[in-house]
Amino acid sequence: MTGAAAVRSPGLRERLQAFGGRAFASPGNAMVTVVLGVVTLVAAVPVVRWALVTATWTGTAEDCRAGAGACWAFVGAKLQFMVFGLYPPDAQWRALLATVLLMSLVVMSALPRFWSRWLIAGWAMGIAAALWLMGGGLGLPSVPTRMWGGLPVTLALTAIGLALGFPIGVLMAFGRQSRRPLLRAASATMVEGIRGIPLIAVLYVAALVFPLALPSGLQVDKLILAQVAVALFAAAYLGEAVRSGLQMIPKRQREAAFALGFTWWRSMRLVILPQALRVVLPSLVSIAVGFFQDTSLVVVIGLFDLLNTTRLAAQDPDWLGFHTEAYVFAALLYFAGSSSITRYGRWLEGRLRVRGASAIGS
Amino acid sequence: MTLFRNSVRDWNTARWRGVILQGLGLGICAVALWWLARNTASNLDQRGISVGFEFLRQPANFAIGEAWVRYSPDDTLARAILVGLANTAIVSVLGWMLATVFGFVVGLLRLSRNPVLDGLLRGAVDFVRNIPLLLLLLFLAATMHSLPSPRNALEPVSGVILSDRGLILAYPGLTTLHAVLALVLVGTLLLRTRLGRRGWWVVAGAAGALAVALSIVPPSWRSPHLEGFNFVGGVTFSPEFAALLFALVLHHGAHISEVVRGAVLAVPQRQWDAAAALGLSRFQATRLVVLPQAIRAMVPLLANNCVSLTKNSSLAVAIGFPDVVSVLNTTANQTGHAVETMLIMILVYLALSLAVAAALNSYNRRILRHGVAG
Question: Which of A53, B58, B305, B334 is the most buried (most CB within 10 A)?
């Protein structure tokens, strides 16, 4: 391990050779390879024919029914509805701008070079701007939240849910480690209570029971209720992961911090939490991926997130019978989102590990 | 110095600060809860709804499409909820079993040294893990409903019939004798290690007895056949049930396969080497040396997966399968007793989660006391 040359990734030729070596290592192995190869080809040919060769790319439902393959014309015709829901078409540039704004906030938060106090200010301003763009006011015609839908809703629920849920989760994790019995009991009840029930039950409580507990006449927007509910749900799972990380950090780290004269908050913020978070990063990432997918459950309280608009598009009586295309489109979007979070998690893990290792080594 | 602090500035010591802060917190929470409860009571009072569980004795007045417990709309709401609970239980238990088997098979196959097998399975598992379960469920439900009518039903394998009425399976009509012998066979398999060296002979005896019984009284297959517009005979699973079960098994099977693979890979390489040095084949090494160690690491994750499968079965409400959440939601909408029904929903799932957590704790204690074999 003396330089870049030693760890350079193998070329295509070498990788093919290694692949061939493993695929045909023994007669049994070679047989499995051949049989699976043939089965894959036989299965893939009709799929490719359906998706590409005989597919209908433009036109109406009639054109699609005449053709034999996939009806991508349907996705094209319904694209606006699937991505933006019932948002007024002439104002959709606002929804698009809000989506781009949220996306760039997420990307910026993901890059360690932007990690500073300014990022919190950036989030506050970004969310305010996105809400203004979506909702209107101050010169823009107003659009009520019941008309919001599609990708912006899914993104907002995920990003704001994680951004709100993470600090709450960390506080809950601190609470469960506290010396104060009431605080410990309260945090434990919150976390275990939320983790013990399905997200659907949390959403029902937020949408059906909570409004009953407010003074009559006072109404809270359903989207806000759902946002708070999913944030608390994320907080419970993130908090549990953070707690397991805190438990893994040896007690001597805290004692050392105290010996240096750190207060409790400073020792947590500068010594304990950074190490704990690095340990549990993989589980935080998988919670984030699961959460991104689980925001789709808001369909049960009648919100129009990306999956719900897809479902409604698939039920359009003019385009009956093309639900596969609609769900393939949504699946690709969710797949892209989920797998980029996973990849980012792996990248961050590697980067933090390198940093940590060199810090210990020096 | 210490003495001085303790006697004079007693109120500022950490302990007293803790007591006061916690007392304040408790007080604030109590006031907030009291305020919320009072609002709820007055809101419900305005709508003329009395708080309490009396309403469960009212007739339900709604039909439930799929009931494994005898039910009619004249029955009480309590019975309707029981039907929902039974549906949740059936789909969850079937889901656990199938997802575990599926996950083990995929997870172990992924350990194969063949790159084609591993690559294909990895692609499939990654795809399922990266799309929402609800998307899978909605897609499968829509697909089940767009299948051909019973007259043109698909029959991919003899005895398995797919149509827009759902999934219909033929099943062997077995006598009590068959069932008892099959149970005995399963029992001997489970207790084989306790029977010592004669274990396999006892198992073989039980299998032989079952084979003899099957050859004397062959099982009569109850195969479904078309009568009018629908099928008669066989076990019928509604399209919703089939979609929910498939989606849960695919999603959780994919997750379980990763658990299995991870646990096996976590067993140190020297265990494989030691098994090979003793002359065990790779299959024997997996079964006798590696899996028993891996399973110990898997159990908590598998149990959590089962709990989350049960919780995820509540997605049934999105496709109209009458599970407990769906029935409770209908009850809340019809009677206005949202608070009580949600309380029931929360208690049902909390009870399950706590029961599994307790079982896991006792398992962990047993492992700590006895090691793997205990």
Answer: B305
Task: List, in order of start, the domains of chain A with CATH numbers.
Answer: 71-361 (1.10.3720.10)
Question: Is A200–B314 a contact, with Cβ atoms under 8 angstroms apart?
Answer: yes
pTM (2 d.p.): 0.86
Cα angle A111, A116, A122; round to 5: 85
Q: Residues in chain A with pLDDT < 50?
A: 1-6, 358-362
Cβ neighbours of B117 in A, within 8 Å: 32, 36
CB pair distance less than 8 Å for B120 and A180: no
- pLDDT (tens digit, 9 = 90+) per residue, B31-82? 999 998 888 888 888 888 888 888 888 888 888 888 778 888 888 899 999 9
Inter-chain contact B135–A195, Cβ cutoff 8 Å?
Answer: no
Residue of B nearest to A30 (CA): B114
Do the beta carbons of residue A62 and residue A52 sit within 8 Å? no
Question: Nearest residue of A to residue B324 by CA position?
Answer: A201
C-alpha closest to that of B149 among B232, B240, B236, B230: B230
Burial of A72 (0-12, 13-18, 19+ CB in 10 A): buried
Instruction: Please list every residue in chain A whose beta carbon sits closer than 8 Å to the beta carbon of residue B37.
Output: 213
| B21-36 confidence digits (pLDDT tens) | 888 888 998 999 999 8
The ipTM estimated for the assembled molecules is 0.88
Query: What's the pLDDT score for residue A230?
Result: 96
